Amino acid sequence: MAQLRCENVALGYEAKVILEGLHFTVYPGDYLCIVGENGSGKSTLLKTVLGLKSPLKGTIETGDGLKQNEIGYLPQQTAVQRDFPASVKEIVLSGCQGRCGMRPFYNRQEKRLAEENIRKMGIESLQNRCYRELSGGQQQRVLLARALCATRKMLLLDEPVSGLDPRVTAEMYRLIWELNQKDNITVIMISHDIAAALTYATHILHIGRDLFFGTKNEYLQSETGKLFSGQEGGVEK
Fold first, then answer.
1. Residue 202: exposed, middle, or buried by beta-carbon count in 10 A (0-12, 13-18, 19+)?
2. What is the rounded CA–CA span in Å between residue 81 and residue 233?
3. Rounded to a whole number, what is the distance in angstroms from the first to the last CA of the chain?
4. Which of 22, 143, 151, 229 could be stapled to 72 by a disulfide with Cβ–Cβ 3.0 to 4.6 Å?
5. pLDDT for 80
6. What mean pLDDT do residues 185-212 have?
7. Residue ranges per domain, the chain?
8. According to the model, what pLDDT value does residue 231 have?
9. What pTM does this model have?
10. 71 with 4: CB under 8 angstroms?
């Protein structure tokens, strides 16, 4: 059963369409990379999947028992967010807010879940540190642990390696791949790194002037894929 189905969707702002005719389906365990030109609507699509925006047209539906408030989300960080004055443990635990309902406190199970995800991300030694004192790579691990507290099924990641150095980028890609392979968490990730997308993804969604959705191999065989992957004289972007 599909976890996410997008049918004939149009996206935009105040009736101004920036993307239309979008169709794709995501199944449990998929690793979907969303690629394409800047300003093509990639981040808007993730916000629409989360229910933070409404599509101008078409439908986006979840299935396989997945609810919108059970999707983990790692957005692009702003400068203000990077300077947030809270402890690592507090930020990770805040990922459980969707589980609390009307309760004004976290229960024992939610605290254990936060501890488990802190261990999974290898940041036990940082849990009492102030978030704004951490390096960019450490902050991304904290936010990934937070996103995991919201879900056991699907993660939405908006350029999770942006601004990181090559070594930390490789570590982050490895962590995400392990969550997909070992924990069977479906990954939907926006990326400008075509090489990494073609290394890790099972499926590619290319949006922009041309729309493409299919497996990684199908993308490589398509004209759009050949252009963006640097084949046949194209320039990698």
1. middle
2. 40
3. 34
4. 151
5. 59
6. 93
7. 1-66+153-237, 78-152
8. 54
9. 0.90
10. no
Query: Where on the phi/psi map is residue 39: left (φ > 0), alpha (ψ -120 to 50), or beta?
Result: left
**Six token digits for residue 10:** 């149009």
Q: Cα–Cα distances in Å, from 58 out to 19, 23, 46, 134, 210?
A: 12, 9, 15, 42, 19
Please provide the CATH number assigned to the domain covering 1-66+153-237.
3.40.50.300
The Cα-based distances of 144 to 43, 73, 77, 147, 157 in angstroms read 17, 8, 12, 5, 9
What residue type is 84 in one-letter code? F
| HSE of 208, CA atoms in CB hemisphere, 13 A | 12
Alpha-carbon span 181 to 170, nearest angstrom = 16
Under 8 Å between Cβ of 87 and 134: no
Can you give 21-63 as a three-state secondary structure string? EEEEEECCCCEEEEEECCCCCHHHHHHHHCCCCCCCEEEEEEC
Contact 74, 213 (CB under 8 A): no
Q: Tally DSSP H helices, then E strands, for the chain.
A: 10, 9
